[in-house]
Amino acid sequence: MEVFGSICASSESEAAPQSHFRIQARLPAQQSNPKFPYAIALRKRGRETRGRAIASNNKSFRDEELLADVITRLIGDVRHVAVGNASPIPATAALLARTRGNGRPYVSLLGSRTHTFFTDGGRELFDCAGQGRIDVFFLSGGEIDGEGNINLVSIGDYEKPKARFPGSFGSSYLYFVVPKVILFRTEHSRRTLVPKVGFISAPGGSPPNVHRTGGPIALITNRCLFSFDRTRKRFTLASVHPGHTVDEVAEHTGFDFDRPADVPVTPTPSAETLRLLREVVAPELAEVYPQFATSVFGVRKSA
To answer: Structure pTM?
Structure first.
């Protein structure tokens, strides 16, 4: 049995800061989804950057910086962003959003002494989410399917699984109560993005008679960004990251998804964004993710 030790209820592990990711151990939404305002600007900026982004062989940014920039735009104008354990890239994005917003949104990083008001870890996180006081959270999974379902338990026979994941923890609860859940997976392959998950830890959608205030708005991977339509329970390809193609995304995705006739290239981080990431965010991040901050930004935790 293969055990995946670093896929937790939030996202990817600090142990994988490389530029090229590998596994460690969701109407057309772009036009009509009010939870996905990033799409309009994305299409415009994608058209502007398409030629130069793909042509650039000596890019001035790391993949982690690109993903953090994309996630920051997905976060949008909110009050409170919470980030679970082992989630360095979402944490980077949340801190970047706060830096750009001059202190807004409030950011809570589990495991941090500085960037949180929680004193009792997960229990306070769940209580806060249940009261409607968390606007954005991040989830990942050993498997994610085309309906936004995630699997954090196992693959294969439940009693004798081929692979065992860390467990669902509070993923199903947070998936139902946090308005904007951003799915995140840095291994974009047919073994991770599957037609149907082997075990539903948290469902991407619910029947009409189920009261649900939360759910997925997008899935970001090392290859592309998908938006998610909660009504249709279906992903739409929103953009393809520089250096990748639509055909490549289709080849490595196990589920069906919608796509516009013209898929934009994901906009690259601006010079000012890179400056903020490297000079402001990285030193803050080092408190919780020292290995990641050193590997990606060359910043060490202060004594």
So the answer is: 0.83
- Going by their DSSP bridges, the two strands 2-3 and 106-109 should be labelled as unpaired
Where does the chain have alpha helices with state H? 29-32, 38-55, 63-75, 88-100, 122-130, 171-177, 246-251, 271-276, 282-285, 290-292
Give the tens place of pLDDT for each residue, 220-277: 999 999 999 999 999 999 999 999 999 999 999 999 999 999 999 999 999 999 999 9
Measured CA to CA in angstroms, residue 267 lies from 91, 103, 293 at distances of: 20, 24, 23
* Tens digits of residue pLDDT in 59-77: 799 999 999 999 999 999 9
Sequence ranges of the domains in the chain:
2-297
**Fold held by 2-297:** Glutaconate Coenzyme A-transferase (3.40.1080)
Torsion angles phi and psi, residue 285, rounded to 5: -65, -30
Q: In DSSP terms, which residues pair with 106 in a beta bridge?
A: 80
Say how far apart CA 111 and CA 288 lie, in whole Å.
7
Asked whether 111 and 119 are in contact (CB, 8 A), the reply is no
CA gap 224, 249 in Å, rounded: 7
